[in-house]
């Protein structure tokens, strides 16, 4: 029996909108291995929803570290 897929895949543009950043930055995150993506056709990429959620969870900063004088 095949394993059921429990992940969704979303466009680079949608991820950029969600993170309030540029598509170029999203491509950099993919290139750096911080986001997982799959290739659709010749050029289109889709980002794993689970990967995006993991990225967000680990990208949180401690305000004291970030804003310390």
UniProtKB/TrEMBL annotation:
Q: Which residues form the signal peptide?
A: none
Domain of life of the native organism: Bacteria
**Domain Helix-turn-helix span(s) in chain numbering:** 10-58
**Which GO molecular-function terms appear in the entry?**
DNA binding
Q: What is this protein called?
A: DNA binding domain-containing protein, excisionase family
According to its UniProt entry, this protein's organism is Syntrophus gentianae
């Amino acid at each position: 029996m095949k394993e059921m897929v429990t992940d969704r895949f979303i466009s680079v543009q949608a991820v950029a909108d969600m993170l309030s950043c540029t598509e170029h930055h999203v491509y950099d995150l993919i290139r750096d291995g911080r986001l997982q993506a799959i290739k659709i056709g010749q050029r289109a990429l889709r980002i794993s929803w689970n990967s995006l959620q993991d990225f967000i969870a680990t990208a949180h900063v401690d305000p004291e570290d970030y804003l310390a004088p």
